[in-house]
Amino acid sequence: MLTASPGFHIDVITFTSLIDGYCRAGQVNEGLKLWQEMISRNISPNIYTFAVVINALARDNRLDDALEFLRRLRLTNIIPKPFIYNPVIDGLCKAGNVEKASKLVVEMEEKGCRPDKLTFTILIIGHCMKGRTIEAMRIYNKMLQVGCVPDSITVNSFISCLLKAGMAKEAFSIKRAAVEDPNLSMSLSKRAVPVRANADCMVAF
């Protein structure tokens, strides 16, 4: 039980900082105890409190618990941000559950939360890992269509995956667009994105 010194007011910022400290130290359950204490004091969590807990649970591979906190978030009037969803989407993709990750992205969009660069990158690589390069290509094109500018990590990772899948033509096309299109605003050169067959992205066939 937290006790405040005279003149010190315990609020959501206090709890969020303490929960974050426990989670960073790997003591997620202690952080969750503080969450419960915060709720018992009728102190409402803010978006950063949710972000800390959801990120910690996803990092700890407790995806069901992370999804439960996303459910709780939906019951509030908090407008979600991509950094809330991305750790769970990433965890689901790494666990091979790309379908559920994709549904979570749809939910994001329905809540008025636009996927960001990291969201798209996670999904692209997630689909490639499952051998779904056509779907990954669709997501990459959607990323461009909505004006979300990919960076070198997104492009290099996708090219690597396409090469592993034997799609050298598509990989070269993406490389060329990344180098030539000034709207991408990327620090890429013709030497920065080598098209080679031994790229290091593992994909399923």
TrEMBL record:
It comes from Punica granatum (Pomegranate). It holds the Pfam family PPR_2. PPR repeats lie at residues 11-45, 46-80, 81-115, 116-150. Keywords: Repeat. This is Pentatricopeptide repeat-containing protein At2g06000-like. It comes from the Eukaryota. Belongs to the PPR family. P subfamily.
